[in-house]
Amino acid sequence: MAEGTMRERAIALWEGLWPAALKSAIVRYRTWILATAFFVATFLIYRALSPDATPYNNFVRLGDAFLHGRIYFPEDVPYLELIIIDGRYYVIPPPWPAIIMLPGVLLYGLALNQTLVSVVIGAINASTVTAVVSSLRAKLSAQFWFTVLLVFGTVYFYAATDGGVWFFSHTVAVLFVFFAIYATLVKKWPLVAGLCLGAAYWTRQPTILALPFFVIMLSDRWLLPAEEGKPLWKRVNPEPLLRLGIGLGFFVVLSFIYNYMRFSTPLDASQHRLPERVLAQPWFNHGPFDYRYIPRHTQAMFEFMPILKKEAPYILPSWAGTAIWFTSPALLYAFFAGVKDKLAIVFGGVLLAVTCSFIMLRQVGGLYGWDWITFDIPSQINLFPFFFMIPFAIYFGRHDKFILACWSAILPIALMLGSFAGTGFSQFGYRFSLDFMPFLFLLTMKGMGTDLKWHHKLFIVLSVVGNLWGVLWIHQFEMSHYLDLTWVQF
Predict the structure, then answer these.
(1) Is the pTM of this model over 0.90?
(2) What is the per-residue pLDDT for 194?
(3) By CB neighbour count within 10 A (0-12 exposed, 13-18 middle, 19+ buried), where does 14 fall?
(4) H-helix or E-strand containing 84?
(5) What is the pLDDT of residues 172-231, one digit of tens each?
(6) Beta carbons of 162 and 169 less than 8 angstroms apart
(7) pLDDT value for 370
(8) Taking a C-beta distance cutoff of 8 angstroms, is the pair 324, 336 a contact?
(9) CA dist list (Å): 158 to 21, 46, 310, 418, 457
(10) How far, in Å, CA of 290 to CA of 247, rounded?
(11) Cβ contacts of residue 334 below 8 Å, gap of 6+?
């Protein structure tokens, strides 16, 4: 009793040191305080672990070209992916990242550090994610853990600290998708949501397939409550949908104009005009896009493992990629969003645990020559449990608008990405997952619930460790040839 009384007195004394007005202000503005803290912490950590600069600064160069009245480079630039048309060199990815960097390019020219800009954008995104999470979770501890998961526990960590052309596009696109999510879930601003989704599209084109999420989550604005005898079409208020469409359409039209100036067609023909040395590679055996490439991507998403060695450093990231569940095991909780039946949770958990353990054991078996575990398996058979878990998750979440909206964004994007010849290499993890990562993250939040348990926090910590491993091995140790060792390879 005495101990409890002393503790209560200590708490009362501590609280008494703070003026009531200050405590009230902290409570009122705690989201802004947390968002600012995450901005500062993310910037410092990202910058400390990022390379000094990137040779793949396509967007700095493209911004410089814009300022000189061109949409192309007049000469080839080594180590950059460019399309050559009539002696002009065009940057392959959409140009929005270059446009948002124009003020910096205007001030610093080609000396602008694209990696540093990427780090700043990553820090801004940390604040944005904090705002989104705060709107969905009231507890400060939950806001902290979930923001840490996205910022440091997914391959966004690596992409934002890399800053190279492909990764910079991902970093910018994820930011604008979260802007769109915030405008939709928190502010209910269809026009702003459309503009932000459009900006994401003009950065990473597959993100436009997330449109169903925003249509569904804005349904309380455009679909009036049901009334007896009132047909569905009379319940539709088209204004919010028009606002959403106008915002998105603005960037779609800009994209059409930009593509017409480059290719004499409003559609982006860049992948069909890749250099012959690229199209001649074996992974383009069916052209740039074909549904027969989907198995490659499912392997990259679910099966690719790190490279194991018997000598230091023992475990290496693979440039070919690493399964999403290995780099970010916390995201497995997305499959359990909306699942209330304990038996179903146990069944799904055991199924995933056995499958993931089997895949990892086969990797270890390959190192030590364990024939009993490295036997041949028909393609995709060992990935069936992951394929099963997707309809499993949709079935149990079928009555939840939020869950269905997330899956309506994830699946179209994933299928579109799966039809592309390349799987994203050179990369850490599976970088294409960033195109649907915001929605997978939202499902993970839903799957973990409002009260985080010890196992939720453990999986978040494992996710942070997994991504920190990749950032350190590639950005720090490989680039400095630390201990004269090889730290990453195909």
Answers:
(1) yes
(2) 98
(3) exposed
(4) strand 82-85
(5) 999 999 999 999 999 999 999 999 999 999 999 999 999 999 999 999 998 887 766 677
(6) no
(7) 87
(8) no
(9) 41, 9, 26, 22, 21
(10) 31
(11) 393, 440, 443, 444, 446, 447
